[in-house]
Amino acid sequence: MTATSTPNGVRTVKSASRTIELLEYLASRQANPPHLAEVCTALGAPRSSVYALLRTLVQQGWVQSDGTDGYSLGIRVLIAGTSYIDSDPYVRIVRPILVDLSTTFGETFHMGRIDGDKVVYLFTQESHRELRAYSRVGRRMPATATALGKVILAHRPELIPETFERLTEFSITNRVDFDADVATTLERGYSTEDQENTLGVRCIAFPLPYSQPVTDAISCSIPKVRWTEANVERITEGMRAAVIRIVESAPVSV
């Protein structure tokens, strides 16, 4: 086990850093589990050390092997992630309020948290309508391409990335257009997103200012065919009231 010093003087353990890097890489490849050679290339590490690390994580349940040299995240990752969400005081407050919103408006509502230049979905209450938006807890998306991420970045300009990922033909891909979007968001108090990450779906998002700087937001995903001025106005007002309820119930951030 070796350790190195970071600029702030904190000593980091190389094996621990590599383990985290490995788990994050596997998370990014869940839809297409990588083989050992790919993992070695991604980590820039020798085959022998990567294989030993993978086998250790497999034995502990953090990684699973498909039996043909392919690797993906194991069940212990789910357990750890669920524990994080279940113990979060803000998720506990937001969850029932989003359930109420979904029941009232018949649409899908989300809670997300910023993670660098990405936004992570912490809770999703799906609509019960046949035509609805789909998502999942733990999903990590480019913040610039989601209403959740955009409304947080409007309050956290230091997190706006230098490059913008293009997920659909409607994604914002340059800083000038993004800054204009941010200005509109700050003026009206919420962001919108028009098929910028999923075709056929539009979104509305509000920041949750119970912490400074802002880290969380809530959003509503609406199929484009139901995106009418009257419907959006009703949902926007409902979400605005929900934010007030959430902030009044949230623990004081220190």
Descriptive notes:
This protein has eight helices and ten strands. The strands form three sheets. A six-stranded antiparallel beta sheet has the order 7-6-5-10-9-8, with helices on both faces. It has a two-stranded antiparallel sheet with strand order 1-2. Helix 5 runs antiparallel to helix 8. It is globular and about 60 Å long. The model has no long low-confidence stretch (mean pLDDT 88).
Task: Sum up the structure in keywords.
alpha+beta, two-stranded antiparallel ribbon, Arc Repressor Mutant, subunit A, 2 domains, globular, Beta-Lactamase, 43% helix, 254 residues, six-stranded antiparallel beta sheet
Give a summary of the structure in a few sentences.
This protein is of the alpha+beta class and 254 residues long.
